[in-house]
Amino acid sequence: MKIQRIRGVKDILPNEIWKWQYIESVAHKIFPRYGFNEIRLPIFEDTRLFSRSIGDTTDIVEKEMYTFKDRGGDSITLRPEGTASVVRAYIENKMYNPPSVLKMFYMGPMFRYERPQAGRLRQFNQVGVEAMGSPGPIVDVEIMTMVMEFLKELGLADIKLEINSLGSQECRPQYRELLKTEIEKHIDQLCDNCTARYQRNPLRVLDCKAKECGNVAEGLPKLIDHLDPASAEHFAEVRSLLDSIGTPYSVNPKLVRGLDYYNRTAFEVTSQNLGSQNAICGGGRYDTLVEELEGPSTPCFGFALGLERLVSLIPFNESSDLQKHPDVYIVCLGEEAKSMAFEIAHQLRAKGLSVERDYEMASMKSQMRKANKFQSRFTLIIGENEIRSGKLILKNMDSGEQKECTTEELVSEISEPEVDTQ
RNA sequence: GUGAGCGUAGCUCAGCUGGUAGAGCACUCGGUUGUGGUCCGAGCGGUCGCGGGUUCAAAUCCCGUCGUUCACCCCA
Prior knowledge:
By secondary structure, the protein is α+β, with helices and mostly antiparallel strands.
């Protein structure tokens, strides 16, 4: 049987890699403006890192992790998300006492064993951002603003920023109990799923998509009405800061994040053009995770953004300059020309030009067709006549004009006068 | 883990109620001596996912299996 790729993974082929490189370049342009530097971390970790940070009873840890024993018998897990690794690295490398808030971003593959569907893969790429060391709402707002700016720079339209507050470790348990008792009053009106899970995770009833639960949820108490005073104030400041710089958002009291470590501000960026998995970015504040992993008390804020989903949303122009084409395609006729083409290609590449050529001895028509398919800006024609006269023919493939020039003149003829934009 | 749809040339698909496969695009080569993109012509290309069953005969019906897509769940 032919070996094929693992279920739920994707090959990113050379003809679309420019899209990814473009996104990466925009990240490297925007994030440093806010003081974020890249960090590169292992894609596998000690399994306990994830069970302790993400939460033992979350779906991710219960049934979605790629966990295996390595040859030494240690339990290893392919990272299902990036924050845990960043926090581990922060503690392990004692990156305490930065001059200001410690700000980092990362990009790379994450792994979750789920049934693949539109916008959901088993290996997928995220770009994530973490700011460590400030409890204040300014960080929350700066980062949410940065995401929106990043997405705007990439040309996304029709995206929404939704925010909520998940409260604190103090008020949330109280609210959960209140919610449970309220839900019990309507227990017969819930969908089967929620009937089964409301005891364990009552917050999930709030954003259940089933109509019957939606009706019940309308009448249930909202967490943002039951925040402890400090969290309520924090949330009010977040909203007022967002307002002050005119970042559009909406409060979604039903927004619940799936990872246990979040508290206070939680947010999502969604798009209606993604299919059923409509979140492109999700994140929030996690003030106690560092402590839970045995580091010093360090309040943090971060998010993760799905790159596959992002790629599918960006309105790429297929004829964009981002796609790389050769500066020149060399057409050669005859053995002598073939060896001359070899030398000239070498010289032009050494001067920084990208050169494509015919490697066989195809007919001229065939070679010209290939030059066209490569969308090269110029075609350099070398035949017996050109070798005899020492003047090569350089053809501009847009205008169709061609002129004779010596090998010395080639570089200046081909080089573009315009300056790089990036 | 649950449910539904789909698996025919490199790609997108047609092939009604069974009679040993087609189109468009792509690719290759041509349209007279060394010039692309448009146009015209020719050509290459398929164990019809795999296995079994029914039948004189199956891409077409039945069963199984694998893959895939979408949805639930959950999330990026």
